[in-house]
Specification:
about 475 residues; alpha/beta; Rossmann fold; 6-stranded parallel sheet; 18 helices; 15 strands; globular; transferase; Group 1 glycosyl transferase; Glyco_trans_1; transferase activity
Length: about 475
């Protein structure tokens, strides 16, 4: 292996995986800041604005490649680049305007990579070519589910490299494999790719490790937990409240705000929050409810939120994707941030971001998200019984009415969030693969901000 490592990140920049993409690019940028050579290989969609200046980016494949059940080189090489002549927002609008289309692409991708031990040979050939051009020594795979191409490249390439597998959303791919009748093959491929790497695979929480072992039958000894990291806020000043009124003109500063920030998809349980908010309204507990975030699979669930709120006669300050400036202001001015997911979340990036601003969070007592709100005898938020809107209402009521509890959780929130510093994540990954850091002055590393201003937009959409 090269004495001067070059890292290549293979990641998907679309669908339900935006949070995973953010994690990968945060790590890529941190390695770049430390002096390592880094490249990013995008699959299906890209988010170039997240990537620091000086990092090479290449399109490994475009989404249309998986328009059909078999990968299409013609659609990939011709239609894909033509679609990218449109702005990203327009591409997303077009894809979401076709119900089920994103699921179809991801389902076809999953089938192509797991149906046989020889996954998408032409894509593997392209990956080998890119790695040789860039001198890649360490291939960082965003998901175990796309790692069959890494194993195939290693078997078929004369270029020396190793790859690291990360589990951080592979339950979505498992669902596609199950629908295609390929779950046994999917499980076998995961075992193969984990075994084919010299390092245990990275898993982003202890609960998610348990889930992967239980559901995929993997060897626990071949998995290691490394938590995700974020760029910690440098100051504690609240942005002006007026910033929020540019998106939410009717929002009032003198009434407590309860916020949901994240993807507006059915698995996120936003309807539970609506029911809980209605229960509090009946109890005459004042609050304002804000719901915002992008969608990955179309507008159906967002429209359902509007319908449910209308039937409940509940006022909701509702928006789609918001900028990082609005997001940070919302975190800072919210009484609490609620992430009511009904699925077993691998991690909880939104919860960490909110606590980083000193804002308590409420999350379900289910999944890896519970691990981000408590450390030792400190807590930065509360947990509620999963899927239970009445218990969520009770926890909300406590944070809205118990000033002493709120102050205690708020005072501890930043300390909890500091556990998830991007530098800790980067140190852990480098130690895991046996590479020493090429840091400059440690003080620079801890305080340096991304040079590209667009990186401050890096969490505009969530997984």
């Amino acid at each position: 292996m090269s004495a001067n490592p070059t890292f290549a990140f293979v990641t998907i920049g679309s669908g339900s995986y935006v949070g995973s993409t953010v994690r990968d690019i945060i790590l890529a940028n941190a390695l770049h800041r430390r002096g390592f050579k880094v490249v990013v290989y995008w699959m299906m969609e890209c988010k170039p604005e997240l990537v620091a200046d000086g990092i090479r980016q290449r399109m490994l494949c475009y989404g249309p490649r998986y328009h059909f059940r078999q990968p299409s080189e013609i659609l990939d090489k011709i239609v894909g680049p033509l679609l990218f002549l449109f702005p990203a927002r327009e591409r997303v609008r077009i894809a979401q305007g076709m119900p089920g289309y994103v699921d179809r692409l991801l389902g076809n991708l999953t089938s192509c990579l797991h149906r046989t031990p020889d996954p998408d040979p032409l894509l593997v050939k392209r990956l080998i070519k890119f790695m040789a051009l860039d001198g890649v020594s360490h291939l960082m795979m965003s998901f175990a589910a796309i790692s069959p191409i890494a194993l195939a490249a290693k078997k078929n390439s004369d270029h020396p490299f190793d790859y690291l597998v990360t589990f951080q959303g592979d339950e979505h791919f498992a669902s596609y494999a199950r629908k295609a009748g390929l779950l046994p093959e999917f499980r076998q491929r995961l075992k193969d790719v984990v075994q084919g790497s010299p390092w245990p695979a990275v898993v982003i929480s202890h609960d998610y490790l348990d889930r992967i072992v239980e559901e995929m039958g993997l060897d626990r000894e071949r998995l290691r937990v490394i938590y995700n990291g974020i760029e910690l806020a440098r100051d504690n000043e609240k942005p002006p409240f007026a910033v929020l009124n540019t998106v939410f003109p009717d929002l009032k500063e003198d009434t407590p705000i309860v916020s949901y920030v994240g993807r507006q998809e059915s698995e996120k349980g936003i309807d539970l929050l609506l029911y809980a908010a209605k229960l509090l309204e009946v109890r005459r507990i004042p609050m304002q409810l804000v719901v915002c975030g992008s969608t990955a699979k179309g507008q159906s669930y967002r429209n359902a939120i509007v319908d449910i709120a209308d039937h409940l006669r509940l006022a909701v300050h509702h928006a789609g994707q918001i900028s990082s400036e609005i997001r940070d202001a919302l975190y800072a001015h919210s009484r609490c941030v609620v992430y009511p997911s009904i699925c077993r979340e691998p991690f909880g990036l939104v919860a960490v971001e909110a606590m980083n601003r000193g804002t308590p969070v409420i999350v379900p007592d289910y999944g890896g998200i519970t691990e981000v709100v408590r450390h030792s005898d400190k807590a930065g938020g509360l947990t509620f019984k999963a899927w239970d809107s009445a218990d969520l209402a009770l926890k909300l009521e406590q944070l809205l009415t118990d000033g002493m509890m709120h102050r205690k959780l708020s005072s501890q929130a930043r300390d909890i969030a500091a556990k998830f510093n991007v530098e800790y994540m980067t140190d852990a990954v480098l130690e895991h693969i046996g590479i020493g850091s090429v840091r400059r002055d440690p003080d620079d590393i801890c305080t340096e901000q991304p040079r590209n201003p667009a990186l401050r937009e890096s969490h505009r959409a969530r997984a």
